[in-house]
Amino acid sequence: MGDGAVSTSLSLCNHRSPGLPPGLGQRVAPVSYPCASPAVWAHLHYTVCDPLLSAMATLSVKPGQRFTVPDWHTSSHLISADAERRRSASHQVRQEARTLRNETSNQAKWDEHDNRTRLAERIRSVNRWKETLDKCLADVDAEIDALAKVKEAAERALQAKNLPLEVAIECLTLRESRSAINMVRDPVEEDLHKEVKLIDKAKRELQQKASKAFEQLCLLQEVRQQLSSDHQCKMEALELDRMCLSLSVNSPNISFKVNPTWVPNRSTTVDEWEQNSQSNKQRAEAEMKTSAELREATVLAIAQTNNELEAQRVATEFALRKRIRDLEKAYDELQWQEQNTLEEIADMEEEIRCLEEELRRKMQVLKVAHTRLETRTYRPHADLCRDQVQYGLTDEVHQLEGAIRALRQKLAESQDSLDALYRQLHRIRTDLGCKTNSLVLDNKCMDTRRKLLVPSERFLPEAETFPRATTRTLPVRTNGQQELVQERATDCIP
Predict the structure, then answer these.
(1) CA contacts within 13 A on the Cβ side of 6
(2) Which of 10, 69, 156, 298: disulfide with 209, CB 3.0–4.6 Å?
(3) What is the pTM of this model?
């Protein structure tokens, strides 16, 4: 066997057919035999390859299904068709994906542009309302300041009414010290009572205006608080919307949120939002209008009350001066009568003095009771009650008035026992003392009423220019009669 045959045999021996038992036909590492002769190679061929050839003769057919050539071609065509179909489907998917990318990109851009436009429009709308609220807040602040000034003016006017009231009450109290026939309800007393009523009415009106101004100030403060709260909300909303408008895909503070599309329970619609701001603005305007009307009414009330009180003051002082002139005329007449009849009173003066002394004491006690009753009228609020003290003082006044009337009656009866000259002189002297007292009191009233024209801290009451009866020296015939007449004059003045 030549070298080619040996090579072929070795190649067959190095090939392992499928299905051979393990160990047969395995590739053996090639061995070089440089000195081998052809006889040796033939021996190796029969020794090694003969078992392999015998095994191939028995396992030539592979067990399992066999396909035909058409099946093979059909399978190839099916694979090609499937490949074409898969490529076509893939191409369709790619086209749809590209279209979807373009559509979603365009839609996202337009949505983002629309939302930026909406945000910008919303910011302008909120900013317009913020500017409206700014102006409304400024108007409310101005109205609060104006109403507060008017309220202070009303309170000052109310405080200023205390002095005229005190003066009128002081005048009435002074004139309550008049005695006998001079205790008349003259035009001066009527004007003084009218003045007191007018001052009380003015104080009630001014107090009512001040109270209404205070209530209106509270309402304006409440409205201002609502406007301020709404304005603060607008500022925060503007800040948030502007921050949202400044966001972009490159912003560092963007992230996914958990359920970002949920609607808070406290959220409102645009109409409700608009209505809320409009309602706050309308309420503020309504309260400012009411406040302006109240300011006008308060200023008018202050001017009207001042004019009414000034007119009443002029009328009262005119009546008081007229009354003083009447008293002076009557006083001069009594002086003339006293001068002509004084010489006839010496014998009965002592008894008359005793009666008048008792009358003077009763008048003093009566003044105390009057003063107590008058003073207790200043008790505040619910403490101004008709208690037992009130009834007791009233009974005391009635009893004192009855006692005074009785003493005067006894004095008149005593005077009746005297001759006509004594009775006439006593009446003249008593009336003269009462008129003297009335003149002094009315002049004090005039001096007191000067406080209404001159500031109280600059007011210095002048000395009494009208001479009292106790300081006057009347012409009498004897020194004893002169002393008795002076004592009588002192007793007539309570």
Answers:
(1) 16
(2) 298
(3) 0.56
